[in-house]
């Protein structure tokens, strides 16, 4: 069955820098896998529905993922899926949506998150990243992949070129580039609400996940409009390298549960 979010809560898993990346020091891939599985258990213990695996600590990264990054991300993703088959698993290989789809398809992940570069072009710290929707569509067709592709629209850490309104950019990603769902988020709760309202007017039935900016205080309100949320920094006390803080995770998931009860009470 194709994954479709419904007040779904994801924790981001961002492993230590992988072998071959600039910040990698002496951890082996076995060391990193052990750390990831320990963190995944904390995520399960704290009631999250799933995880999104991202090699954020490999930065700086340009458009095309290195072969070793693809190999190591496949290993880690496989281990998560094998050990925790009940978890929803998303894959995000920085910043390569084609690589993300290849990894996800190989391990039977539930979806791919394509950040920065599904459509259009974005200026990032690593330069200009260009949309990969054509290459992603070609790979989907070639390997007959059924893994849903979720695309970030105007991700907050990049500057989109062209100044296209958020609703037009979202419509284009779905109807011209064939994304199955979207990630949308602003720099504040107010901006995120403004963005989701605009997107919903043109795409009322497209699944939309809040890609960032969630915390224990705002997520109850935001999930009245979004179908799901991914969180990293807030449940790790402001630093993605920290382990999950069980107290913050409890606060966050309590607010998610209140949002579910409120939203489902209206349906």
Automatic annotation (TrEMBL):
It comes from the Bacteria. Belongs to the BtpA family. This is BtpA family membrane complex biogenesis protein. It comes from [Clostridium] innocuum 2959. The lineage of its organism: Bacteria, Bacillati, Bacillota, Clostridia, Eubacteriales.
């Amino acid at each position: 069955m194709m994954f479709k979010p419904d007040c779904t809560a994801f924790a981001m898993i961002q492993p230590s820098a992988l072998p071959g990346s600039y910040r990698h020091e002496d951890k082996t891939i076995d060391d990193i896998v052990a750390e990831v599985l320990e963190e995944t258990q904390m995520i399960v213990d704290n009631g999250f529905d799933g995880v999104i695996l991202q090699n954020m600590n490999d930065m700086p990264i340009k458009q095309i993922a290195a072969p070793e990054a693809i190999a190591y991300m496949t290993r880690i993703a496989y281990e998560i899926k094998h050990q925790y088959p009940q978890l929803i698993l998303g894959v995000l290989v920085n910043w390569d949506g084609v690589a993300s789809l290849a990894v996800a398809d190989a391990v039977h992940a539930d979806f791919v998150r394509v950040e920065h570069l599904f459509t259009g072009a974005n200026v990032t710290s690593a330069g200009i990243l260009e949309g990969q929707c054509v290459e992603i569509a070609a790979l989907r067709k070639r390997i007959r992949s059924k893994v849903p592709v979720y695309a970030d629209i105007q991700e907050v850490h990049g500057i989109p070129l062209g100044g296209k309104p958020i609703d037009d950019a979202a419509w284009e990603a779905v109807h011209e580039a064939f994304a199955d769902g979207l990630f949308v988020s602003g720099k504040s709760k107010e901006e995120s609400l403004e963005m989701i309202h605009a997107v919903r007017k043109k795409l009322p039935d497209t699944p939309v996940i809040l890609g960032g900016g969630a915390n224990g205080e705002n997520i109850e309100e935001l999930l009245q409009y979004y179908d799901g949320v991914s969180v990293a920094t807030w449940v790790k006390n402001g630093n993605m390298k920290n382990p999950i803080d069980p107290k913050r995770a409890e606060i966050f998931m309590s607010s998610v549960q209140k949002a579910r009860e409120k939203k489902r009470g209206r349906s």
